[in-house]
Specification:
Blueprint: E1 8-13, H1 35-42, E2 45-48, H2 50-53, H3 58-67, E3 75-79, H4 82-85, H5 95-108, E4 112-118, H6 127-139, E5 145-148, H7 157-166, E6 168-174, E7 194-198, H8 203-206, H9 212-215, H10 222-236, E8 243-247, H11 254-273
Parallel strand pairs: 1-2, 1-8, 2-3, 3-4, 4-5, 5-6, 6-7, 7-8
């Protein structure tokens, strides 16, 4: 029997960074240069950060879709607005419909891979917080959903079982090992696809408050990428669907370089299986 190869798909968390000029993007930029098209030439998907901070008008999503119209397989993962994930209590009742309207052009164009709900370290596993997950599924009943937890209290079998019932993907993450942070897991909630996000291992800056760039300033070593590749393969064995691998260690294009190296490692590992 021929070996089963995992469909790994690679993408970065965002694409609009000033420090990518000269590190990822060419300087000077050629006429008509589009950073998004540049990324679509090289990767399989992109995570949209804008929607986490504010709900944009639908025309913005229309523009994203238009820019990559010549890349039929390129997709968007949309980060859920922080009003759902970071604000305590009940969210604004108008928020779900506003968010759905903002991303509707991507869905209509067949460019929406799904919604990523990124919860903070302070979001611990409680009955009330589990109920928030059920509400998310109620508000987005047909959309692929992935949830990211950063506190290790969520790393429980009953959580995976509940996510499976809700058809929500558990997002495995690599992050600095600080306090009760979630370690690199190889979990699957059997949602039909898998997700792995790489945040870097800059423990000194993770909770320092020095800002986004300092927090995600990390360049993975070859040994660390091999460790992550082994976990990615193990994750892939648990699902018949694709494994989305995202690089969030964006500072000065480190995610771009690391993802390319990780892809080479995974290609070699899967080649050795045959």
């Amino acid at each position: 029997m021929a070996p089963a190869f995992t469909d790994f798909r690679f993408g970065t968390a965002g694409w609009s960074y000033e420090d990518w000029k000269g590190t990822v993007y060419p300087v000077p930029e050629p006429p008509g240069f589009s950073p998004l098209r540049f990324m679509a030439d090289r990767f399989d998907f992109i995570e949209v950060n804008t929607t986490f901070y504010r709900i944009p008008p639908p025309r913005l999503a229309e523009g994203w879709s238009h820019q990559v119209r010549d890349h039929p397989n390129f997709m968007f993962w949309i980060k859920l607005n922080r009003g759902f994930t970071h604000d305590s209590g009940t969210w604004d009742p108008s928020l779900p419909s506003a968010f759905r309207s903002a991303i509707a052009p991507l869905e209509e164009a067949g460019k929406l891979a799904g919604i990523l709900a990124q919860f903070p370290y302070s979001f611990h596993q409680t009955d009330a917080n589990q109920a928030r997950l059920s509400k998310l599924r109620e508000h987005f009943p047909e959309t692929p959903l992935a949830v990211e937890f950063r506190h290790r209290s969520w790393n429980r079998d009953h959580v995976l079982s509940r996510l499976h019932e809700l058809d929500i993907c558990w997002t495995n993450i690599d992050q600095p090992r600080v306090s009760r942070s979630l370690p690199l897991t190889e979990n699957s909630s059997r949602a039909g696809f898998e997700y792995l996000r790489l945040h870097g291992r800059n423990a000194a800056e993770w909770f320092s408050g020095s800002g986004r760039d300092a927090r995600y300033d990390y360049d993975y070593s070859a040994a660390e990428l091999k460790e992550i590749a082994r976990s990615a393969i193990n994750i892939g064995k648990k699902s018949s669907g694709s494994v989305y691998i995202s690089g969030n260690n964006h500072y000065k294009g480190q995610a771009v370089r690391n993802l390319k190296a990780l892809k080479d490692i995974l290609d070699a590992m899967q080649g050795n299986i045959s």
